[in-house]
Design brief:
binds S-adenosylmethionine, single chain, alpha/beta, 12 strands, 326 residues, globular
């Protein structure tokens, strides 16, 4: 089978519509460069035809643009992307087909930390959908909640800045963590230069200090790499939970993961977690964790932080602000 099939006119038109929608809904206000690139792709017959020839689950702009960046070495603009598609089509398709969007944002620790600190220490953590494990290193990072500062164990790890919107129960220190493990369908390895390169390609141009924060978190993770097991969150959790020490509070948590999973499987996951003797924390878009639908503004960047499936806070999906619910 060819890597990329020939696309019909209808699917190319669909791609153009999807890229225009993504430019306006997701990239606007976050990355002017990618907003403009997605609009340009939508206008370009060769590019929409290329994208339409990819399998449906591989057509997202963030995946295609990250793959182009991986090959080009810099964030793509429309000219180099067109050139790549005409001259290195198979190579580009190969990266798209073999890689996934596995953005790992350490700052998501800052929105989970206040809920985590309310649990009885010491803690044993299972990060579900851990990617490279950067959201497992709560105690290595330092935190700055608009002047409320907490020091981490690794002075060279990044300081995560998170704006509390209204009163937030901020902890006096990071709780003791005695054990941690991650699980992911496709763990990324912080000690692999290739995986690190892919992680950095997933950051969008113009996203402030995300690239520096990622690099500092990876450098810290490399000094003592977190363990992320290969497995599916639907089946692998009970065996991993059984390895946790009995004398610590087991916490199963995930951020920006469950929305990758079909709705009926989210219910199945929720019932698996509820069957474990564990606290359950999540930061996912509204309604993704069963029972967390809320009347909130239509905002692709908004997440609901939930404790045992009950909404506790609203937060930015990249960890920049946190608002506790009454
Ligand atoms: C967007 S990344 C988020 C990574 C990390 N939780 C964070 O907040 O930075 C989503 C991760 O979920 C993983 N994932 C998706 N479906 C999964 C499944 N069924 N089982 C395990 N991991 C899964 C992906 O491989 C990916 O690494």
């Amino acid at each position: 089978m060819p890597l990329v099939e020939l696309a019909g006119e209808d699917s190319a038109a669909e791609v153009a519509r999807a890229y225009r929608g993504w430019a306006r809904r997701e990239a606007r206000g976050r990355s002017a460069a990618y907003e403009s690139l997605a609009e340009s792709v939508a206008e370009d017959a060769a590019l929409t035809e290329f994208v339409a020839g990819l399998p449906p689950g591989k057509r997202q702009p963030n995946l295609v643009f990250a793959a182009a960046r991986y090959l080009l070495g810099t964030p793509p603009t429309v000219g180099p992307l067109r050139e790549l598609v005409s001259q290195s089509r198979a190579e580009l398709a190969q990266v798209i087909l073999t890689r996934r969007t596995q953005t790992n944002e350490p700052a998501r620790c800052a929105v989970l930390l206040p809920a985590l600190a309310q649990l009885p220490p010491p803690l044993a953590l299972i990060d579900v959908g851990a990617s490279a494990g950067l959201t497992m290193l709560f105690d290595r990072y330092s935190y700055d909640y608009a002047g409320h500062r907490l020091a981490g164990r690794d002075p060279q790890a990044p300081t995560l800045r998170c704006e509390p919107r209204g009163p937030v129960p901020l902890p006096p220190h990071v709780p003791a963590i005695t054990w941690r493990a991650g699980i992911d369908l496709n763990p990324l390895d912080v000690t692999s230069d290739d995986d690190v390169r892919w992680l950095s390609c997933l950051v969008w141009p113009g996203e402030g200090d995300r690239a520096q924060r990622l690099a500092a978190a990876i450098a810290s993770a490399r000094r003592d790499p977190p363990v992320v097991h290969r497995g599916d969150l639907l089946t692998g959790l009970p065996a991993l939970a059984a390895r946790a020490p009995a004398d610590a509070t087991l916490v199963v948590y995930h951020s920006s993961v469950l929305w990758y999973v079909a709705a009926d499987q989210r219910e199945q996951f929720a019932s698996t977690v509820r069957g474990l003797n564990a606290a359950w924390l999540s930061s996912e878009p509204p309604g993704v964790v069963p029972g967390t639908s809320m009347p909130v503004p239509d905002d692709d960047q908004l997440c609901v932080v939930a404790h045992d499936g009950r909404p506790a806070a609203l937060a930015d999906s990249h960890g920049t602000w946190l608002q506790w619910l009454p």
